[in-house]
Amino acid sequence: MSEPVRSCDRRGFMRGAGQLSLVASGAGLLGLPAQAAQPTSLENEKAEEPLAEATINALEGAYGVHPKQRRNHTKDVGALGIFTGNPEVQRWSKSRLFSGEATHVVGRFSIAGGDPKVKDSDRSPRGLALEFRIPDGSLHHMTMLNTPMFFAQVPQTFLDKFIALAVDPTTGKADPARFAAFNASHPDTRGQVKFLTDNNPPRSYSEEAYFGIHTFFVANKAGQRQKVKFHFEPRDEIHRLTDQQMNSLPDHFLEAALSERLRRGPAEWDLILTLGEPQDEEINPTLLWPSNRPKIKAGRLRLHSSASSEQAGSSKINFDPLMLSDGFEASSDPILLFRSPSYAVSHGRRLQEA
Question: What class of enzyme is it (predicted)?
Answer without folding.
Answer: oxidoreductase
